[in-house]
Amino acid sequence: MRVLVVEDEKKTASFVRKALQAEGFAVDVLHAGDGVLTALQTTPFDVLVLDIMLPGRDGLSALRQLRENKNVTPVLLLSARGGVNERVEGLNAGADDYLPKPFELAELIARVRALGRRGGENKSTVLRVADLTLDTLTRLAKRGGAEIELTAREYRLLEFLMRSTGRLCGRMTILEKVWDYDFDPGTNLVDVYIRRVREKIDAKFEPKLLHTIRGAGYILEEQR
């Protein structure tokens, strides 16, 4: 599952990120509320962990706008204010769960996992672009009925590209989402894996689905 953590206390955000990653989650972090809506529009997150007190746009304002936009991503609210009124306000704004600070990391992980399962019940487990399919439960890829063998990293790259169908994916974005890098290692790592995935999903099939936008990145789509 991919989780977006929005927490302005950088030490807390770092602890949460490392704890979730240790449990197998892919984690992105923001330290202000202004970028929440954009992040959720560009990346399909399974759970949003959202602090209420944030610089710029506060968590409740971002949450209300999210729900007004019909985004149903499960949201776990965090707040140092643990009173009943604050919990009710957060739940009325559209939160799915509420965790007061300070909290135990084990409890946060359990709540995130529960929200991810709940949200997953309403999502198709099979991604599809043209005749390319990817079952996210079995991790089985097929094109034209033929099974495609993928390594763990190739699977993660293909899943990200398929969840971003029709959107341009830059190299830095791919490094962040697929490798969890927040820096460019200065290698051709992305290019190598793009070639490997393209060879497996496109070389023997038509139409071609994985396209290079020179100088900008890559896009997976059935071009007409």
Task: Provide a brief overview of the structure.
The chain has 224 residues and is α/β, with parallel strands linked by helices. It folds into 2 domains: 2-120, Rossmann fold; 126-220, Orthogonal Bundle (Arc Repressor Mutant, subunit A), CATH 1.10.10.10. It has helices at residues 10-22, 36-42, 59-68, 84-92, 105-120, 152-163, 171-179, 189-201; strands at residues 2-6, 26-30, 47-51, 75-79, 97-100, 126-129, 132-135, 140-143, 146-148, 210-213, 217-220.
Descriptive account of the structure:
Strand 4 (75-79), helix 4 and strand 5 form a beta-alpha-beta unit. The protein contains 8 helices and 11 strands. It has 224 residues and is of the alpha/beta class. The protein has 2 domains: 2-120, Rossmann fold (3-Layer(aba) Sandwich); 126-220, Winged helix-like DNA-binding domain superfamily/Winged helix DNA-binding domain (Arc Repressor Mutant, subunit A, Orthogonal Bundle), CATH 1.10.10. It starts with a strand and ends with a strand. The protein has a 5-stranded parallel β-sheet, with helices on both faces. The protein has a 4-stranded antiparallel β-sheet with strand order 6-7-8-9, covered by helices on one side. Strands 10-11 form a two-stranded antiparallel sheet. The chain has helices at 10-22, 36-42, 59-68, 84-92, 105-120, 152-163, 171-179, 189-201, and strands spanning 2-6, 26-30, 47-51, 75-79, 97-100, 126-129, 132-135, 140-143, 146-148, 210-213, 217-220. Helix 6 (152-163) crosses helix 7.
